Amino acid sequence: MRKILILTSIILIYSNVVYAGLNVLLTAPTDEGYQTDILNGLSDFPDDFDSVVWWNMYPSNQPTLSDIETYDCVVTWPDYSFPDAANWGDTLADYVDGGGKVILCASCWFPGLNIDGRILSDGYSPFLVGSGNWWTNADWDVDNPDEPGNPCLENINSLTCGFRDSSIPLASWGHLVTHYQDDYENALAYNDNHTVAGINANPCRYGLEWDWTGDYPQAMRNTIVWLCSFTKIQPTSLGELKARFK
């Protein structure tokens, strides 16, 4: 009886593997053109990405689950309000449940523009809604991070941004990687399951003094690749595993 129970037990594990050739979707409601610099920056990593696709959801072109489920990672943020913030948050949570990875960026936690739905709860977004936006430039603390050695910080010499959310709480399931050294605002975090990360910096550039400068494309590349290295192996029995590896 003990042997039968072992053979029929359910196994669910996460495997840390090296990924290449990822397909990534960047999507936000914004004015066309502001996303160009971050897209061009990610194009500098052809060994990591097979495709980096842009989807402007402004004013009412929000992706559905079927639109995004073929991508390895979805990166999203609002410049304007999401067409349906609660529905988008539910869609992203369903996408994560199916094996996808999500990166939320500022202003996902800015009151009034923030994402909503399940992605803000149940162990998904590592940050929660804050109090506003800084509109003040500050630098990531890459020399004294909260989680030294995290691969998300590799090859980042500097990253400065003023378009970032203020007083965003770290969720109980969140793990802070680094903060802004000027005011200790949270900058980068991930959740318990390594499925959702939060980057508190707006990826767009508007030609304004608060635009990001420095190594944001490197930070985004690192975070995408790192999240995607944690691969969920589907539930199966020990007997099935043995059969597959004979």
Side by side, the strands of the main sheet go 3-2-4-5-12-11-10
Total domains, how many?
A: 1
Q: What global shape is seen?
A: globular
The parts where pLDDT drops under 50 for at least 5 residues are 1-19, 233-246
Task: Give the structural class.
Answer: alpha/beta
Question: If helices are DSSP runs of H or I spanning 4 or more residues, what is the number of helices?
Answer: 6
On the 0 to 100 scale, the average pLDDT is 88
**Approximately what portion of the residues adopt beta-strand conformation?**
25-35%
CATH architecture: 3-Layer(aba) Sandwich
Question: Rg, please?
Answer: 19 Å
Order of helices and strands: HEEHEHEHEEEEEEEEEHEH
Quick one: CATH superfamily?
Answer: Class I glutamine amidotransferase (GATase) domain
Number of strands: 14
What is the strand and helix layout of this fold?
Layout: H1 2-7, E1 10-16, E2 22-28, H2 36-42, E3 49-56, H3 65-68, E4 73-76, H4 85-97, E5 101-105, E6 132-133, E7 138-139, E8 159-161, E9 165-166, E10 174-179, E11 186-191, E12 196-199, E13 213-214, H5 216-228, E14 230-237, H6 238-244
Parallel strand pairs: 2-3, 2-4, 4-5, 5-12
Antiparallel strand pairs: 1-14, 6-9, 7-8, 8-13, 10-11, 11-12
Helix pairs in contact: 2-5
Q: What is the compact description of this entry?
A:
The chain is an alpha/beta fold and 246 residues long.
